[in-house]
């Protein structure tokens, strides 16, 4: 059990890191803008030289990065708790693949219904989540069965995506960035889209944190404490799917955020979900904002999608966890 003072210190540190990372994201790019100018622009000074760059381009992109990082981190933390596996992640075990397949279907087959992308992606995430859970269930949940079921389900769903690309090859240009996870060209419309889903998902996750702590005690003890275990598993999987789907529908198939962030937060603040969830959310903001900034400036004027940056960092981390065979 982590000391309360230490947990408070870490939470304050994570909050400061989140604010700093968002400031860095706003300030760095093809044109560098100092902090003082950014503050004046954010306070409503429309006469500033770089107002249009900050307000219309970088601010919505930074907010999207913050929401997506927060959502994926919380989704990963919840999945790791429900499935009792520190290697669980919306991307790795196929939850994002379900959201991605349904999202790609809308983008390619019914582009006129793109306003339905988030709810349709949510349905896909739910379908894949429960498919994986049912495939991995055998008188209990085995961490290795979850990984194997997730890999198999993800491969099946990705085959569906490839089939859609084959049948609708004349329309794939707009969906290419969806497959790698990209934050470029995000606008205030995207912020308006993800904001309500993020608010609902994050709120439900935080207010349900104590129930997750009880669920982690095991089925027998949870039931003895009056918790409807299967009902709450369904509840938490639904929250996780909503958070993952809202992120995937905006930036595409972005992996490893839900793996790295909750694990790093857990090492610092412990496994109490009342602390772990907000810590993961703040750290998710930091990781994705900094990763996107690196992608924008590392090889300027060429911009790397944030999904590539996360893959470079996340794949070795996943192999490390797999070698350690870490479970909750």
Summarize this entry quickly.
The chain has 328 residues and is mostly helical. It has helices at 4-27, 35-42, 51-82, 95-109, 117-136, 143-167, 176-180, 188-207, 209-215, 219-224, 229-251, 257-269, 273-297, 306-324. It has a single domain, classed as ABC transporter involved in vitamin B12 uptake, BtuC (Orthogonal Bundle).
Describe the structure.
- With 328 residues, the chain is mostly helical.
- The protein has one domain (4-29, 60-324): ABC transporter involved in vitamin B12 uptake, BtuC.
- It is built from 14 helices and no strands.
- It has helices at 4-27, 35-42, 51-82, 95-109, 117-136, 143-167, 176-180, 188-207, 209-215, 219-224, 229-251, 257-269, 273-297, 306-324.
- The radius of gyration is 20 Å and the shape is globular.
- The relative contact order is 0.18.
- The mean pLDDT is 86.
Annotation keywords:
328 residues; mainly alpha; ABC transporter involved in vitamin B12 uptake, BtuC; 14 helices; globular
Largest sheet: number of strands, sense, barrel closure? none
Q: If you average the pLDDT, what whole number results?
A: 86
Number of domains: 1
Query: Helix-strand pattern, N to C?
Result: HHHHHHHHHHHHHH
Low-confidence stretches: none
Distance between the termini: 14 Å
Radius of gyration: 20 Å
The SS-based structural class is mainly alpha
Helix run count = 14
CATH class: Mainly Alpha
Task: Record the SSE blueprint.
Layout: H1 4-27, H2 35-42, H3 51-82, H4 95-109, H5 117-136, H6 143-167, H7 176-180, H8 188-207, H9 209-215, H10 219-224, H11 229-251, H12 257-269, H13 273-297, H14 306-324
């Amino acid at each position: 059990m982590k000391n309360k003072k230490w947990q408070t210190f870490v939470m304050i540190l994570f909050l400061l890191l989140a604010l700093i990372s968002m400031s860095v994201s706003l300030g760095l790019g093809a044109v560098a803008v100092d902090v003082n100018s950014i503050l004046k622009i954010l306070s409503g000074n429309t006469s500033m030289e770089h107002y249009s760059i900050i307000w219309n381009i970088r601010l919505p992109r930074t907010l999207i990065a913050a929401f997506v990082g927060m959502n994926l981190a919380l989704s990963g933390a919840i999945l790791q708790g429900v499935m009792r596996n520190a290697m669980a992640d919306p991307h790795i075990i196929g939850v994002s693949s379900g959201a991605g397949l349904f999202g790609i279907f809308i983008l390619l087959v019914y582009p006129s219904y793109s306003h339905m992308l988030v709810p349709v992606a949510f349905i896909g995430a739910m379908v894949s989540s429960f498919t994986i859970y049912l495939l991995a269930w055998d008188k209990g949940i085995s961490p290795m069965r979850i990984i194997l079921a997730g890999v198999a389900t993800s491969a099946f769903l990705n085959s569906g995506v490839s089939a859609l690309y084959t049948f609708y090859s004349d329309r794939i240009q707009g969906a290419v960035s969806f497959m790698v996870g990209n934050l470029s060209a995000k606008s205030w419309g995207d912020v308006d889209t993800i904001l309500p889903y993020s608010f609902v998902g994050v709120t439900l996750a935080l207010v349900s944190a104590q129930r997750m702590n009880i669920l982690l005690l095991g089925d027998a003890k949870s039931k003895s404490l009056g918790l409807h275990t299967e009902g709450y598993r369904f509840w938490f999987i639904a929250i996780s799917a909503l958070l993952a789907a809202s992120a995937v529908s905006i930036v595409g198939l972005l992996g490893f955020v839900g793996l790295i962030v909750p694990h790093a937060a857990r090492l610092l603040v412990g496994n109490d979900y009342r602390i772990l969830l907000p810590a993961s959310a703040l750290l998710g903001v930091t990781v994705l904002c900094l990763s996107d900034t690196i992608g924008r400036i590392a090889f300027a004027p060429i911009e790397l999608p944030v999904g590539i940056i996360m893959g470079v960092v996340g794949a070795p981390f996943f192999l490390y966890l797999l070698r350690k065979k870490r479970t909750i």
